# Entry
Amino acid sequence: MEIKTFGNLIEWTRIKHAELAKCLTHAADKHPDQRTAMLLHYLASQEARLDSMVTVFQDKADPKALDMYAYDMNMHNPITTHMDIDDHYVRMNADEIREEVFGFHDQIAELFRAMIAKAEIPEASDLLREFLDMEVNESKLLVRQTERMDDM
# Structure
């Protein structure tokens, strides 16, 4: 996907959440360890929920900010999380999966922090800050919930 505007960037992020949800679901259905499969199902459901949240966010966002050109984007897929539907996550243990998924969220947050600095109008920087806040808050929730799974 070519990213020319902040709206494109947010849409690209939504797509990445959806892709990760599919990968995690695929692995959950095949993982030999039941607890890890439960973790994968939970993470997949949360990624799907984020996909939906981003859609709602886009619908409510200021069109002027969404249409703002994203200068110096130069994105050649800066997210390094595995997004292919294969057995990558099936071969991982729960800690490795959490580390990779949380790393994905950290990468999204860092990307948005960098883009906030490049926003030329207040509406665009506000849009990106709101989106960053949503991503960071959801990521913190994900970390807390998966830690609780370990307590069970």
In short: The domain at 6-151 is CATH 1.20.1260 (Ferritin). The two ends are 41 Å apart (CA to CA). The mean pLDDT is 89. Residues 122-151 form the longest helix (30 residues).
